[in-house]
Amino acid sequence: MQPVLLLGVERRSAYGEFPLARIAAAHPVVLVDTDPPDWTRPYLSGHIAADPRREAQTAAAVTRYAARHPVRGLLTWDRAHLLTAARITGRLGLPGLSYETASACADRASLRASLARLNAPPAGAEDLEGPLVFAETVVLDDEVRIAALTRTTLGPPPARLPLRHQVHAHDGLLHNPFCRQAVERTVRALGLTHTVVRVGLRLTGRGPRVTDVVPHLPGDLVPLLVELATGVDLARAAAALATGALPDLAPTRQRAAAIQFAYPAATGRLTRLDVDPTASHEPSAERMVLTRQAGEAVTAAPYGNVTDRLAHWVVTGEDAEECTRALRRMADHLTAATLPASDVFAA
């Protein structure tokens, strides 16, 4: 079976293992990266040593590989690699974004300018307080299908890191014509075809305003939430589209799922991080994962970043309210302590 190439991968398994395992179950995967993390090795059938951030060099390395080994498709789930991916798929004649579309989506500044120019109004500074939702969308040749909506709660500025994501198969906004129109207009304006894309929408008094367009598989385990809530496998859908096939998007579940992230309360050295074993008895829990270790330096919100996350937990329920209650119960099982930076320096 011909492989799918993957440009870049998460360095840690906490968020990258789920989608990679899904894709590897359907296709052999050859990773294009400088050095595969140990956790990826069980899922890989090969490796091309190249840095996806170096567009010309990586395109040349992949072209040499493809001359000896037929390739079925190419994927990336990193915005920084979109231009490299577009150059390679264009050169090899594989399904993928055009270079022009990849350029428009490659960074938020160019995306915002493109949306304004194409009459798909982006969110402005006055729109920061409206609810934030992401349309997890599959674009076929001539159809834009919203597989699920992710409602995201952000933390305080300036970082505004995600605190939680929630997906409900019966979210009322799925039937909102203004949200659907905003998504379809954005997809058409940017020329997106045959791809998985998430369109961020801020719900304002002036209607939905586009906050972001991510033309690849979403991170933060959102594909897991979508599958738990609806049964739709976005990772396999992305792989199918990358190979020119049509994905199975038929929902098989009608539930809700959510993930919550824990951040350090203070900047300094983490002195304790553990989970009460009774967390495993929570019937709504799908997983609870520690992502840092005692002894590591961490930065507190609002100035940290996603690498400072201490843990995350995923729950399921019949509706959003049930998930919210389960997230709160799971939070009680986590214990974390940090020695503030001032005390570290004093010592």
Q: How would you portray this structure in words?
A:
This protein is an alpha+beta fold. It is 31% helix and 28% strand. The protein contains ten helices and 15 strands. The protein has helices at residues 13-26, 55-68, 82-92, 99-105, 108-117, 177-190, 222-230, 234-242, 320-331, 341-346, and strands spanning 4-7, 29-33, 46-49, 73-76, 132-139, 144-154, 162-168, 195-204, 207-214, 256-262, 268-275, 285-290, 297-298, 311-317, 334-340. The strands form three sheets. It has an eight-stranded antiparallel beta sheet, sandwiched between helices. A four-stranded parallel beta sheet has the order 3-2-1-4.
Query: Segments where pLDDT lies below 50 for 5+ residues?
Result: none
Tally the helices. Answer: 10
Radius of gyration: 20 Å
Percent range for β-strand residues = 25-35%
Summarize model confidence as the mean pLDDT: 94
Taking the sheet with the most strands, its summary is: 8 strands, antiparallel
Order of helices and strands: EHEEHEHHHEEEHEEHHEEEEEHEH
Query: Approximately how much helix is present in the residues?
Result: 25-40%
The oligomeric state is: single chain
Number of strands: 15
Cα shape: globular
Strand line-up of the largest beta sheet? 9-8-5-6-7-10-14-12
Terminal Cα separation, in Å?
A: 58 Å
User: What structural category do the secondary elements indicate?
Assistant: alpha+beta
